Amino acid sequence: MDDSAFNLTGYTPSAQMRKWAGSATATDFTCEVPSPSSQGKILISLTATQTAALDPGRHVYDIRVSTAGGNIETVVEGSVLVREGVTRSW
């Protein structure tokens, strides 16, 4: 097993979350590769508006990387539990 980081130099990340894999509706994450890209880290985030628009429940997501040549590889996939908030602004 190779424990070295995936060198992301020259790769562009993208990520989406959906209620289920076949859903036509997706939420796109903002993705960035922090320096140095050789560490293999990808930061993903959603805006407050995107987060507020999510339906509570389990969702699935994946993170993919692509090269300038058009090769695409899924590097992470999993599920997210979106919970409805309790606290409201007063």
Walk me through what this model shows.
With 90 residues, the chain is mainly beta. It has one domain (11-82). Helices cover 6% and strands 42% of the residues. The protein contains one helix and six strands, in the order ββββαββ. Strands 2-1-5-6 form a four-stranded antiparallel beta sheet, with no helix packed on it. A two-stranded antiparallel sheet has the order 3-4. It is elongated and about 45 Å long. It starts with 10 loop residues before the first strand and ends in an 8-residue tail after the last strand.
Span between N and C termini?
A: 52 Å
Question: Gyration radius, to the nearest Å?
Answer: 15 Å
Query: How do the SSEs run, as a string of H and E?
Result: EEEEHEE
Count of folded domains? 1
**Number of helices in the DSSP assignment:** 1
Query: Mean pLDDT across all residues, rounded?
Result: 92
Main beta sheet = 4 strands, antiparallel
